[in-house]
Amino acid sequence: MNPASPLDNVRIVLSHTSHPGNIGATARAMKTMGLSRLYLVNPKSFPDSEADARASNARDILESACVCTSLEEAMGDTFLAAALTARSRDLSHPTRNARQAAGELIRYAHHHPVALLFGRESAGLTSAEISHCQLTVQIPANSAYSSLNLAAAVQIMAYELRMVLEEGVVADEPDPQLPEPASLQEIEGLHHHLEQVMVQSGFLDPTQPKRLMRRMRRLFARTRLEKEEVNILRGLLTAVNPHKPT
Amino acid sequence: MNPASPLDNVRIVLSHTSHPGNIGATARAMKTMGLSRLYLVNPKSFPDSEADARASNARDILESACVCTSLEEAMGDTFLAAALTARSRDLSHPTRNARQAAGELIRYAHHHPVALLFGRESAGLTSAEISHCQLTVQIPANSAYSSLNLAAAVQIMAYELRMVLEEGVVADEPDPQLPEPASLQEIEGLHHHLEQVMVQSGFLDPTQPKRLMRRMRRLFARTRLEKEEVNILRGLLTAVNPHKPT
């Protein structure tokens, strides 16, 4: 891959990883496929000698890893985030398999940073974590035993991302008509604004906000908001806010 | 997958594995994708508590693993064997990428046992080991660092095998016209017979047999011999043998 490879725009984000060995094995899995941007959200132990050992000759990935305290910090400036899940959920996001998701991520990664989010070894991602992403990804697996090791799941996704480029299915040229997508940070700003207006208008009970806000997140995740649309919606929210300064 | 899945006909053969943890991780990688037949050729340590730990809930795969002392024992009765290699070699076999190889293996696996052969963690497969296979497989990787962990390589191949079935690209119905392929055992028998006749006829120096026999193996690997063809060739060898009983 040349220095301007879309793979340089793909982040692997590991949330609350328990076993440092899995962080090291993830670094190795990434480097073998040409990925390099590792983000660790509240890892249990890092740096750690076990991570170094399992990374083998991919310690440079560990050394340049970003350790974060929140998903917003790790993914706020990305433009497409996909959450790995082992099973479908209530109120689920649009779901892709590993191959489809890789194609979609690379399409964005030609121009914008994107993220693949992996959860805890034991329990995966929380619904709150998933709600920060625009789509969920499932790796096809044996229904009787679908529990892939964390680094093994990273390996498959990294492989599929590389294969998109190897097979050259996705055009390297951007569609010049494509409107600029909103960043996750801009979308988060919209959600906060929306929640505020819903509460202030009496539409949303602030003691029971979760389900309704998750539905709204799901809706906007599906639409892939553009930057301009976020601006329009926020303008509307400002206009309709009953507490607006007159 | 139903009980008659082609995945039941696919063997994962690990040759001379050094780290028992990799055997356990391989078992887990296999089971998540619906594979179950594990063959271990001279593993350094097996059974081993480290293998059990890394297998997680795939210990049943370890318990039913076949421990062998030779490749012939592990693969002799298979009909297509593919060797995983990180790089091309001199006198190389036909090479497929992971996806292509998976398609080819599944096509055979609808009716016959097939094998995927993985070498030592440190040095991969020897040329002698590769010469028992009909094709080599490369997993597309970063040319600057292509050293996948053993179990990670198994995970990708197992995933691609499953994906062939998930995507339904390969017809489940056999081609009724397809002639019956020769088993590796039958092909080995041919090679031994051929070498014997070459030596007895003075064509081959028995103190320097390696390169010539490897060329012959490569040739026949490419052709995918049928059962009937092996019989014809062996009949010919018997007929031309200068030492034949008169």
TrEMBL record, chains A, B:
EC number: 2.1.1.200
Signal peptide residues on this chain, from the entry's feature table: none
Domain tRNA/rRNA methyltransferase SpoU type: 10-159
Catalytic function, reaction form: uridine(32) in tRNA + S-adenosyl-L-methionine = 2'-O-methyluridine(32) in tRNA + S-adenosyl-L-homocysteine + H(+); cytidine(32) in tRNA + S-adenosyl-L-methionine = 2'-O-methylcytidine(32) in tRNA + S-adenosyl-L-homocysteine + H(+)
Cellular-component GO terms for this entry: cytosol
Keyword Heme: no
Annotated localization: Cytoplasm
GO biological process, one term: tRNA nucleoside ribose methylation
Annotated Pfam families: SpoU_methylase (PF00588)
UniProt key word Nucleus: no
UniProt keyword annotations, A-Z: Cytoplasm, Methyltransferase, S-adenosyl-L-methionine, Transferase, tRNA processing
UniProt xrefs under SUPFAM superfamilies: alpha/beta knot
CDD domains for this protein: SpoU-like_TrmJ (cd18093)
Protein origin, superkingdom: Bacteria
Gene3D superfamilies from the UniProt entry: 1.10.8.590, 3.40.1280.10
MF terms in GO: RNA binding; tRNA (cytidine(32)-2'-O)-methyltransferase activity; tRNA (cytidine(32)/uridine(32)-2'-O)-methyltransferase activity
InterPro entries named among the record's database cross-references: Alpha/beta_knot_MTases, RNA_MeTrfase_TrmJ/LasT, SpoU_MeTrfase, tRNA_m1G_MTases_N
Matches recorded under NCBIfam families: rRNA_methyl_1 (TIGR00050)
Role of this protein: Catalyzes the formation of 2'O-methylated cytidine (Cm32) or 2'O-methylated uridine (Um32) at position 32 in tRNA.
Family membership: Belongs to the class IV-like SAM-binding methyltransferase superfamily. RNA methyltransferase TrmH family.
Self-association state and partner proteins as the record states: Homodimer.
PANTHER family cross-referenced by the UniProt entry: TRNA (CYTIDINE_URIDINE-2'-O-)-METHYLTRANSFERASE TRMJ, TRNA/RRNA METHYLTRANSFERASE
Protein name (record): tRNA (cytidine/uridine-2'-O-)-methyltransferase TrmJ
Organism expressing this protein natively: Nitrosomonas europaea (strain ATCC 19718 / CIP 103999 / KCTC 2705 / NBRC 14298)
The encoding gene: trmJ
